[in-house]
Amino acid sequence: MSKKGFRPDVDAPEYKGHYAPYDIIKEGTIAIAVVAILVLFLSILFGSPDEPSVTVKSWANADPIDFATTAINEMNGSSITASYGAPYNTNGSGQALGPLKLAQWTGVTIPVDPVKDFVLDPLASVPNDSDLKAALAMWRGASASQQTTWVTNYTNADPKMTFSNGIISVPATNVGPLPKMINELTEMARSGALDQALITGKGGYYTTDYTKPLLFIADSGYLPNLAQNQHLLGSQWGMMNETNSYPGQAWLWLYTFWYQVSPFSSSANADVQVWAVMMLLSVLLLLVPVIPGLRAIPRKVKIYRLIWREHYRNS
Asked: What is this structure's pTM?
Protein backbone atom coordinates (compact mmCIF):
# COMPACT_ATOMS: atom_id res chain seq x y z
CA MET A 1 0.00 0.00 0.00
CA SER A 2 1.37 3.41 -0.92
CA LYS A 3 2.07 5.95 1.79
CA LYS A 4 -0.42 8.33 0.21
CA GLY A 5 -3.24 5.81 0.48
CA PHE A 6 -2.59 4.81 4.10
CA ARG A 7 -5.31 5.88 6.55
CA PRO A 8 -3.89 5.80 10.10
CA ASP A 9 -7.24 5.57 11.89
CA VAL A 10 -8.47 2.72 9.68
CA ASP A 11 -5.60 0.79 8.16
CA ALA A 12 -3.12 -1.30 10.12
CA PRO A 13 0.51 -1.13 9.01
CA GLU A 14 2.13 -4.31 7.81
CA TYR A 15 3.73 -6.17 10.71
CA LYS A 16 7.44 -6.73 10.20
CA GLY A 17 8.50 -7.88 13.68
CA HIS A 18 9.32 -11.35 14.93
CA TYR A 19 6.90 -14.11 15.98
CA ALA A 20 6.93 -16.28 19.09
CA PRO A 21 5.19 -19.63 19.61
CA TYR A 22 2.16 -19.57 21.93
CA ASP A 23 0.08 -22.54 23.09
CA ILE A 24 -3.38 -21.08 23.75
CA ILE A 25 -4.87 -24.50 24.60
CA LYS A 26 -2.29 -25.06 27.33
CA GLU A 27 -2.69 -21.54 28.74
CA GLY A 28 -6.48 -21.78 28.68
CA THR A 29 -6.48 -25.15 30.44
CA ILE A 30 -4.20 -23.84 33.20
CA ALA A 31 -6.38 -20.74 33.64
CA ILE A 32 -9.58 -22.79 33.91
CA ALA A 33 -7.99 -25.17 36.42
CA VAL A 34 -6.71 -22.32 38.61
CA VAL A 35 -10.05 -20.51 38.58
CA ALA A 36 -11.95 -23.72 39.37
CA ILE A 37 -9.71 -24.44 42.37
CA LEU A 38 -10.11 -20.86 43.64
CA VAL A 39 -13.89 -20.94 43.24
CA LEU A 40 -14.17 -24.26 45.09
CA PHE A 41 -11.86 -23.12 47.89
CA LEU A 42 -13.56 -19.76 48.37
CA SER A 43 -17.07 -21.26 48.27
CA ILE A 44 -16.10 -23.70 51.03
CA LEU A 45 -14.39 -20.94 53.03
CA PHE A 46 -17.10 -18.29 52.82
CA GLY A 47 -20.26 -20.20 51.88
CA SER A 48 -23.24 -18.54 50.24
CA PRO A 49 -24.62 -15.18 51.51
CA ASP A 50 -28.05 -15.84 50.03
CA GLU A 51 -31.06 -15.28 52.26
CA PRO A 52 -34.18 -17.51 52.27
CA SER A 53 -36.82 -16.59 49.72
CA VAL A 54 -39.42 -14.06 50.82
CA THR A 55 -42.89 -15.58 50.49
CA VAL A 56 -46.36 -14.36 51.31
CA LYS A 57 -46.31 -16.81 54.23
CA SER A 58 -43.05 -15.48 55.69
CA TRP A 59 -44.27 -11.90 55.21
CA ALA A 60 -47.68 -12.46 56.87
CA ASN A 61 -46.13 -14.27 59.82
CA ALA A 62 -43.41 -11.65 60.32
CA ASP A 63 -45.76 -8.66 60.02
CA PRO A 64 -49.47 -9.59 59.83
CA ILE A 65 -50.58 -5.97 60.25
CA ASP A 66 -48.51 -4.89 57.24
CA PHE A 67 -50.03 -7.76 55.27
CA ALA A 68 -53.58 -6.78 56.20
CA THR A 69 -52.86 -3.11 55.46
CA THR A 70 -51.47 -4.04 52.04
CA ALA A 71 -54.52 -6.18 51.32
CA ILE A 72 -56.89 -3.28 52.02
CA ASN A 73 -54.66 -1.00 49.91
CA GLU A 74 -55.19 -3.40 47.02
CA MET A 75 -58.90 -2.98 47.52
CA ASN A 76 -58.87 0.81 47.79
CA GLY A 77 -56.66 1.17 44.72
CA SER A 78 -53.73 2.90 46.46
CA SER A 79 -51.17 0.10 46.12
CA ILE A 80 -48.36 0.30 43.57
CA THR A 81 -49.81 -2.52 41.47
CA ALA A 82 -53.35 -1.14 41.56
CA SER A 83 -52.22 2.25 40.29
CA TYR A 84 -49.30 1.17 38.08
CA GLY A 85 -50.86 0.97 34.64
CA ALA A 86 -49.46 -1.07 31.77
CA PRO A 87 -48.58 -3.89 31.48
CA TYR A 88 -50.87 -4.82 34.41
CA ASN A 89 -53.88 -2.52 34.09
CA THR A 90 -55.09 0.82 32.76
CA ASN A 91 -55.09 2.63 36.10
CA GLY A 92 -51.92 4.64 35.46
CA SER A 93 -49.98 6.21 32.63
CA GLY A 94 -47.02 3.86 33.08
CA GLN A 95 -43.44 4.51 32.05
CA ALA A 96 -42.90 7.21 29.42
CA LEU A 97 -39.89 8.63 27.61
CA GLY A 98 -40.70 12.33 27.25
CA PRO A 99 -43.82 12.55 25.06
CA LEU A 100 -43.52 8.88 24.10
CA LYS A 101 -46.00 6.85 26.14
CA LEU A 102 -44.15 3.57 25.74
CA ALA A 103 -46.09 1.62 28.36
CA GLN A 104 -49.42 2.63 26.87
CA TRP A 105 -48.22 1.63 23.41
CA THR A 106 -47.44 -1.85 24.74
CA GLY A 107 -50.80 -2.10 26.46
CA VAL A 108 -51.98 -4.51 29.15
CA THR A 109 -50.08 -7.69 28.38
CA ILE A 110 -50.11 -9.17 31.91
CA PRO A 111 -53.61 -8.33 33.21
CA VAL A 112 -53.76 -8.08 37.00
CA ASP A 113 -56.85 -6.99 38.93
CA PRO A 114 -55.59 -6.65 42.53
CA VAL A 115 -59.03 -6.87 44.14
CA LYS A 116 -60.01 -9.96 42.20
CA ASP A 117 -56.63 -11.67 41.92
CA PHE A 118 -55.18 -10.91 45.37
CA VAL A 119 -58.32 -10.98 47.52
CA LEU A 120 -61.58 -12.28 46.07
CA ASP A 121 -60.41 -15.26 44.02
CA PRO A 122 -58.10 -16.66 46.75
CA LEU A 123 -60.89 -16.32 49.33
CA ALA A 124 -63.34 -18.04 46.99
CA SER A 125 -61.01 -21.06 46.91
CA VAL A 126 -61.37 -21.68 50.68
CA PRO A 127 -63.56 -24.78 51.18
CA ASN A 128 -66.20 -25.42 53.83
CA ASP A 129 -66.49 -21.94 55.32
CA SER A 130 -70.09 -20.82 55.19
CA ASP A 131 -69.40 -17.51 56.97
CA LEU A 132 -66.75 -16.60 54.40
CA LYS A 133 -69.03 -17.54 51.53
CA ALA A 134 -71.74 -15.32 53.02
CA ALA A 135 -69.23 -12.46 53.36
CA LEU A 136 -68.15 -12.83 49.73
CA ALA A 137 -71.78 -12.97 48.60
CA MET A 138 -72.49 -9.80 50.57
CA TRP A 139 -69.52 -8.06 48.93
CA ARG A 140 -70.44 -9.11 45.41
CA GLY A 141 -74.09 -8.19 45.95
CA ALA A 142 -73.28 -4.65 47.10
CA SER A 143 -73.21 -1.68 44.76
CA ALA A 144 -69.90 -0.08 43.79
CA SER A 145 -70.64 2.95 45.97
CA GLN A 146 -71.42 0.73 48.96
CA GLN A 147 -68.18 -1.21 48.45
CA THR A 148 -66.27 2.08 48.29
CA THR A 149 -67.86 3.23 51.56
CA TRP A 150 -66.89 0.00 53.32
CA VAL A 151 -63.32 0.14 52.03
CA THR A 152 -62.94 3.83 52.87
CA ASN A 153 -64.16 3.32 56.45
CA TYR A 154 -61.86 0.34 56.92
CA THR A 155 -58.90 2.23 55.42
CA ASN A 156 -59.44 5.24 57.67
CA ALA A 157 -59.17 2.94 60.72
CA ASP A 158 -55.98 1.26 59.49
CA PRO A 159 -53.65 3.19 61.84
CA LYS A 160 -55.49 1.63 64.82
CA MET A 161 -55.27 -1.92 63.45
CA THR A 162 -54.14 -4.57 65.95
CA PHE A 163 -53.27 -8.26 65.76
CA SER A 164 -53.86 -10.65 68.64
CA ASN A 165 -54.46 -14.39 68.87
CA GLY A 166 -54.45 -14.68 65.10
CA ILE A 167 -57.15 -12.04 64.63
CA ILE A 168 -56.87 -8.69 62.84
CA SER A 169 -58.99 -6.08 64.63
CA VAL A 170 -59.96 -2.67 63.28
CA PRO A 171 -62.14 -0.29 65.34
CA ALA A 172 -64.40 0.78 62.49
CA THR A 173 -68.10 0.75 61.73
CA ASN A 174 -70.00 0.34 58.49
CA VAL A 175 -67.29 -1.83 56.95
CA GLY A 176 -69.57 -4.63 55.75
CA PRO A 177 -67.89 -8.02 55.27
CA LEU A 178 -64.34 -6.64 55.18
CA PRO A 179 -63.29 -7.75 58.71
CA LYS A 180 -64.15 -11.35 57.87
CA MET A 181 -62.51 -11.16 54.44
CA ILE A 182 -59.28 -9.54 55.64
CA ASN A 183 -58.99 -11.95 58.59
CA GLU A 184 -59.51 -14.99 56.37
CA LEU A 185 -56.99 -13.69 53.84
CA THR A 186 -54.44 -13.10 56.60
CA GLU A 187 -55.04 -16.62 57.92
CA MET A 188 -54.57 -18.02 54.42
CA ALA A 189 -51.34 -16.09 54.07
CA ARG A 190 -49.93 -17.20 57.42
CA SER A 191 -50.70 -20.84 56.65
CA GLY A 192 -49.04 -20.72 53.22
CA ALA A 193 -52.29 -21.41 51.35
CA LEU A 194 -52.29 -17.96 49.75
CA ASP A 195 -48.90 -18.53 48.13
CA GLN A 196 -50.35 -21.51 46.29
CA ALA A 197 -53.67 -19.82 45.51
CA LEU A 198 -51.91 -16.87 43.86
CA ILE A 199 -49.90 -19.03 41.46
CA THR A 200 -52.64 -21.50 40.55
CA GLY A 201 -55.36 -18.96 39.83
CA LYS A 202 -54.98 -19.53 36.09
CA GLY A 203 -55.68 -23.23 36.49
CA GLY A 204 -53.36 -26.14 37.01
CA TYR A 205 -51.38 -27.08 40.09
CA TYR A 206 -47.87 -26.74 38.70
CA THR A 207 -46.73 -23.37 37.44
CA THR A 208 -43.66 -21.18 37.33
CA ASP A 209 -45.56 -17.89 36.99
CA TYR A 210 -44.93 -16.02 40.25
CA THR A 211 -46.06 -12.64 38.94
CA LYS A 212 -49.01 -12.22 41.31
CA PRO A 213 -47.32 -13.15 44.61
CA LEU A 214 -44.29 -11.05 43.66
CA LEU A 215 -46.46 -8.01 42.89
CA PHE A 216 -48.45 -8.48 46.10
CA ILE A 217 -45.27 -8.70 48.21
CA ALA A 218 -43.75 -5.73 46.38
CA ASP A 219 -46.76 -3.61 47.39
CA SER A 220 -45.95 -4.16 51.06
CA GLY A 221 -43.84 -2.16 53.47
CA TYR A 222 -42.17 -5.38 54.61
CA LEU A 223 -40.10 -6.04 51.48
CA PRO A 224 -38.60 -2.52 51.21
CA ASN A 225 -37.55 -2.76 54.87
CA LEU A 226 -35.77 -6.03 54.18
CA ALA A 227 -34.11 -4.51 51.14
CA GLN A 228 -32.93 -1.49 53.10
CA ASN A 229 -31.42 -3.67 55.82
CA GLN A 230 -29.51 -5.60 53.17
CA HIS A 231 -28.45 -2.42 51.31
CA LEU A 232 -30.46 -3.44 48.24
CA LEU A 233 -32.52 -0.31 47.63
CA GLY A 234 -32.00 1.55 44.39
CA SER A 235 -30.55 4.47 46.36
CA GLN A 236 -28.03 2.04 47.82
CA TRP A 237 -26.87 0.78 44.41
CA GLY A 238 -29.00 -2.24 45.22
CA MET A 239 -29.22 -3.54 41.67
CA MET A 240 -25.58 -4.54 41.81
CA ASN A 241 -25.52 -5.97 45.34
CA GLU A 242 -25.93 -9.44 46.65
CA THR A 243 -27.15 -9.60 50.22
CA ASN A 244 -24.43 -8.49 52.62
CA SER A 245 -22.11 -7.78 49.69
CA TYR A 246 -20.49 -4.48 48.76
CA PRO A 247 -20.05 -3.15 46.16
CA GLY A 248 -21.52 -6.21 44.50
CA GLN A 249 -21.45 -7.14 40.83
CA ALA A 250 -19.13 -4.64 39.23
CA TRP A 251 -20.35 -5.42 35.71
CA LEU A 252 -23.67 -3.74 36.56
CA TRP A 253 -22.22 -0.49 37.88
CA LEU A 254 -22.74 1.42 34.63
CA TYR A 255 -26.47 0.63 34.60
CA THR A 256 -27.01 1.29 38.30
CA PHE A 257 -24.94 4.47 38.30
CA TRP A 258 -27.63 6.43 36.45
CA TYR A 259 -30.19 5.80 39.20
CA GLN A 260 -27.98 7.69 41.64
CA VAL A 261 -27.83 10.99 39.72
CA SER A 262 -30.38 13.62 38.76
CA PRO A 263 -32.78 13.62 36.99
CA PHE A 264 -33.03 9.83 37.08
CA SER A 265 -32.81 9.56 40.89
CA SER A 266 -36.10 11.45 41.34
CA SER A 267 -37.94 10.55 38.14
CA ALA A 268 -41.06 8.38 38.04
CA ASN A 269 -39.88 7.24 34.60
CA ALA A 270 -36.33 6.40 35.66
CA ASP A 271 -36.49 2.81 34.38
CA VAL A 272 -37.24 3.72 30.79
CA GLN A 273 -34.94 6.76 30.88
CA VAL A 274 -31.99 4.71 32.11
CA TRP A 275 -32.81 2.07 29.51
CA ALA A 276 -32.73 4.75 26.78
CA VAL A 277 -29.36 6.06 28.00
CA MET A 278 -27.90 2.56 28.01
CA MET A 279 -29.23 1.86 24.52
CA LEU A 280 -27.65 5.09 23.27
CA LEU A 281 -24.30 4.22 24.86
CA SER A 282 -24.50 0.72 23.40
CA VAL A 283 -25.14 2.09 19.91
CA LEU A 284 -22.20 4.49 20.28
CA LEU A 285 -19.99 1.59 21.33
CA LEU A 286 -21.04 -0.40 18.27
CA LEU A 287 -20.34 2.60 16.02
CA VAL A 288 -16.85 3.30 17.40
CA PRO A 289 -15.14 1.61 14.40
CA VAL A 290 -16.88 3.97 11.94
CA ILE A 291 -16.66 7.29 13.82
CA PRO A 292 -13.65 9.30 12.49
CA GLY A 293 -11.33 10.54 15.20
CA LEU A 294 -12.90 8.40 17.91
CA ARG A 295 -11.74 5.19 16.27
CA ALA A 296 -8.18 6.56 16.10
CA ILE A 297 -7.88 7.17 19.86
CA PRO A 298 -6.29 3.78 20.70
CA ARG A 299 -3.70 4.22 17.97
CA LYS A 300 -2.86 7.79 19.01
CA VAL A 301 -2.58 7.22 22.78
CA LYS A 302 -0.52 4.06 22.18
CA ILE A 303 -1.78 2.19 25.23
CA TYR A 304 -1.26 -0.99 23.25
CA ARG A 305 2.50 -0.44 23.52
CA LEU A 306 2.22 -0.71 27.31
CA ILE A 307 0.14 -3.87 27.12
CA TRP A 308 2.50 -5.51 24.59
CA ARG A 309 5.64 -3.86 25.94
CA GLU A 310 7.72 -7.04 25.80
CA HIS A 311 6.92 -7.44 22.14
CA TYR A 312 7.84 -3.84 21.31
CA ARG A 313 10.97 -4.03 23.44
CA ASN A 314 12.26 -6.97 21.43
CA SER A 315 11.08 -5.88 18.01
From this structure: 0.73
